[in-house]
Fold each of these.
Amino acid sequence: MEQGEISLSDREFARIKSRVYQVAGISLSDAKRTLVVSRLSKIVRALGLPSFDAYVDYLERNGSASDGQDFVNALTTNLTRFYREDHHFEHLRSHVAGLIASKPRGTRLRIWSAGCSTGQEPYTIGMDLLAALPELKRWDFKILATDIDTAVLAKAAGGVYPENELNGLSAERARLLERAGSGSIRIPAAVRELVSFKPLNLIEPNWPMKGPFDAIFCRNVAIYFDKPTQGQVFSRLGKLLAPEAFLYIGHSENLGSGGEGFRLVGKTIYQIKQVNKRAAA
Ligand SMILES: C[S@@+](CC[C@H](N)C(=O)[O-])C[C@H]1O[C@@H](n2cnc3c(N)ncnc32)[C@H](O)[C@@H]1O
């Protein structure tokens, strides 16, 4: 145990697992025990509480919404990067190029990054599409970016990152970001303006958005859910996709029981199955 960390009994760990599952759908494996101790100890100490048991009691009885949010924020995993799983952005680019070729200027284009973490995913979508398809400036183009973790959303909305986020990007891609001085890079205003960051818990029964979306990215998010929750989330995402739209999921994920109604069209890329109206008639 590191200095300042509080010891965690099996019973306390079980209570924490049960609570984060209930509020965020996150299934913590036993391997996450050290992570729980290191991330929550600071909060427990700051509240002046003596143990994790006392902390869970506090959350259950008199914790505020902001205490509940701090608990969730501490237990999410937010790893992300610009151009992660590159082939999805290539695929999206060619889909949107096709839409531009076949639809009039001013057409609506909506993309959702569900579980956007610190924003690299929605910003990559915006930067990549604007650079490749400048005609989009004359379209009604918006990106919705949501996450349950309000701390990552605040970072994302700032649009400023350390320069080492460019590591591994080609010079051409690195040029899509502005240099902000003191070792920082910044998302250009034209891209920032495309993206709206909003808090959303994907396991909430009511989502405020109506869609339809031309693409949904829900990558490396459902991986933290159990199978039934994964199935429900993917199936609900499918209902918000436009007929020709695509769902992009993480490299190690599959749709599970949510896959009914989807067809696989590329590596971890799905489209809604079209009902053949003539055959159905
Ligand atoms: C590993 S990041 C993935 C970021 C990005 N999509 C990517 O692939 O690079 C997973 C994100 O899912 C979010 N998340 C976890 N549970 C969630 C829930 N119930 N609703 C919404 N977002 C959730 C976490 O806060 C975290 O930012």
Amino acid sequence: MRMLEVLIVGGGVMGAATAYALARRGRRVLLLEQFAIGHARGSSHGLSRQIGCAYPQLYYTRLAKAAYQAWADLEADTGQRLVIKTGALALGAADLRYLRACASNLAAAGVPFESLSAPELRARFPQLAISDQTIGLYQPDGGILPASRCVATFIEQARRYGAAIASGVRVERVMPDGSGARVDASGATYRAQRVIITAGSYTPLLLRSLSLSFPLLITREQSAFFLPRDRRLGNLPVISDFGDDETNPPLICFPDLGEGVKAERLGVGTLVRNPYEPPPLPDPVENDQIARRLNQTLPGYAARLLRAETCRMTHTPDGDFLIDRHPEFGQIVIAIPCIGHGFKLAPLIGEMLADLAIDGSTACDITPFRLNRMLNRQVYT
Ligand SMILES: Cc1cc2nc3c(=O)[nH]c(=O)nc-3n(C[C@H](O)[C@H](O)[C@H](O)COP(=O)(O)OP(=O)(O)OC[C@H]3O[C@@H](n4cnc5c(N)ncnc54)[C@H](O)[C@@H]3O)c2cc1C
């Protein structure tokens, strides 16, 4: 059996970006995906993900700023436009500490942005309902990544640089084997010097054979698309509205790119106990709730529900990513950046994972993402 250099488990955006990073460096890489590339039973499918740098943690703001260059490099390499700059607006009156922390981090990282008062917000965005207490942070470079197209681009480009991509192959087990690893998948056995696990919500099943166990919560989140009442009103930024009342779930709303205004409520996902259970149809009650919440931010803006889709999130106990080598078997690298904001960082995370697999370390600071913090952790924050 031929020894592979690097085997990647999972062809969502993280696995695809990692295959691209490795193949571009001339590494021999095989990516195994259990379903078809672009399927809807993970976290990376769909029309849009937000890109922007407003975070209450400076390390994410810095990473997001660096990610813009990584996307620009991919765009230059492929001739495709992937970052659609619509501007991004974060709004709120309930948790001003959160927005002030974001503002201070944007300033510290040197990201261009404006702080807007309630009267300034009303003048600039008359479509929005703005209470007197509301403040806004506007990042002109914020925007949208066409999610499924980004994954397809990484895969296509990885192939062009020589990566082998196999879909419909389910990895059952990853096991350390000398200085490399053995991978059992759909009746075949592979050996590789390095294995990278980017398996999203399916990761806990693979960690069992690696004697790793820590609590991960998997939720199903729903997005709904609405026909705007008047398409001429479409010139909006991506809006994250934290609202006036902390008991009301925040809303994220994407401008119409031709398929309607996309909206989702944050923090209301339903628990997924078994990642292999067939995804249920989108919940009509949640569609109504999204419509109601959207109407609070943009009164009368949405005319009619067009469609809805669901997507998985994988939550670590402290809400930070996990990106690290296995504590005992350093030839195995694990990444769980599938909390609700990882997509924008995918090209950087792909480089980090490639560094960790090939060099054993990365120049990016992954201190907040280390695996050790997760062991013996039971409590969700
Ligand atoms: C509703 C929602 C909104 C979001 N909004 C944003 C946003 O606005 N901005 C942002 O930056 N991020 C956002 N995110 C987060 C972002 O989408 C995720 O961080 C990212 O998609 C995670 O990608 P992944 O490759 O880690 O996981 P996945 O996309 O789930 O990929 C994992 C892949 O591994 C495969 N796999 C698993 N097990 C096996 C196995 N045993 N054998 C073979 N293959 C296997 C799976 O089939 C899957 O294709 C959002 C996420 C959700 C759910």
Amino acid sequence: MLRRAWQGGAVLIGAAGAWTTWDLLQPLPTTGFGGTVRAVPEDSVPEDSVLEVRAARAYLTRIDGDVVAISEKCTHLGCRVPWCDSSKQFECPCHGSVFNRAGERRAGPAPRGMDRYPVEIGGDGLVYIDTGSKIEGPPSGSKETIDEPPAGSSCAAEGA
Ligand code: FES
């Protein structure tokens, strides 16, 4: 009887060790930058401007009604590219690259348009940005997919 108790205990310890090892090897859910970021309600994403989501280091906008997430990192040397409200385009303060609202390159040394992230609209109506899966921006010289010329003066010209 004592022998069976020892055998049962050894089996339990082995099972606990196997479960612990399996549990430790599971990938951790990532919910910050580098993983999926829960952003804002879909209906708050603007049509003619952008909404910055700091946690995702990205901007949300709509292109032909679809929600699009654009990385705020310049494809030249990685500066954060701010949105300019007066010109309605992205203007990199480091070396002057300019991108339209869709992130397509208009001017400057950037080798391509701004990168994007896949987005999903959850069942809760929120936008989820997958910052772990970057989509390369369109190459320089690509035809712009939106017809939105600069709306006003450049923020760089204003010194803003
Ligand atoms: S880092 Fe943006 S233009 Fe150089």
Amino acid sequence: MSSLLHYGLDRHWLDEFEKHSQDAVLARVVRVDRGGFDAATENGIARCTGGAVCTGDWVALDGESFRLIAILPRRTAVERASAGTTSDTQVLAANVDTVVVTVASDTALDLGRVERYITLAWGSGAVPVLAITKTDSGSVAEEVLSSAAPGVTVCSTSAVSDGGIDSLAAHLHGTVALIGPSGSGKSTLGNALLGGAVLATGATREGDSKGRHTTVHRELVPIPERELVLLDTPGLRSVGVQGSEDAVASAFSDIDELAAWCRFADCAHEREPGCAVLAAVDAGELTDRRLSNYRKLLRENAWATSRHDARARSEKLREYKQISKSLRQKYAVDDRGR
Ligand SMILES: Nc1nc2c(ncn2[C@@H]2O[C@H](COP(=O)(O)OP(=O)(O)OP(=O)(O)O)[C@@H](O)[C@H]2O)c(=O)[nH]1
Ligand SMILES: [Mg+2]
Ligand SMILES: [Zn+2]
């Protein structure tokens, strides 16, 4: 498995790599640990040192020492706010094209947590997909998940009966990161996609079916047969979202769209007259639970200071939305005046 093509190499990375010295070696980080990292090169996996790399990064290495020369600019990054501080972020996976969020059918459904994961996924720049796992041992309605993640494809899968794996795969593209709580079946799903027991999996606890944090490293594994590269991750204990209101707006696009119809441009959807969001709650079209989680995630975002350039993008988007909203309101006023 030495060809970098199996690890997702494309023209873009070759062009980025050309900017470095001729003695440099192109590689993709497959695993990071305390002492350094493993990277796939055209001649196999190399043990490398130096730099704050992340699984999924494309890097230029010194051809002799395998020391890091440079991290090629990331196209996407799955980032969460580090526990404790709000200004620090941790990159969980780099250069991911699809983020699969796993939701297990054998544990109690926590929609707030799903919304967090989906916000994290949208914030990465990759496309989120929701995978319901273990459908042989429980059930979660796809419609319920869809309402918590508008615009996101939802697939039901079972690794035991092989159900839904190919239909899920049809929605996957490029580098696919698996994220979700411990025990939700990420590695098992990864193995089902791989067609063999490559990734370690572990039994969940008796009683509450919670995971035991079996996967401890983020790991990149090619699936040449499906033209995918899999990035398995350990279950997260906490999911802090940060960085862009943009991601929250995408994860809550239903509320975002409603908000454009509120009477006041700066409506906080608390108790303002003419609030279209509260009207939707009254009409039973939006749950109180979802609205309060939306507020909570927005607050978290406001606290976090972002050093990400997504910031500039989201400001542009906000500005644009503000303009289109005031235009809409102007016309609404004109209509009433007539
Ligand atoms: N019945 C059934 N069990 C499953 C299925 N998928 C996973 N499991 C079981 O769920 C348990 C946890 O699966 P893992 O794949 O290790 O979960 P994980 O999300 O990778 O967990 P961490 O690595 O701890 O984050 C294992 O005992 C699996 O055998 C499924 O489709 N059906
Ligand atoms: Mg695992
Ligand atoms: Zn409002």
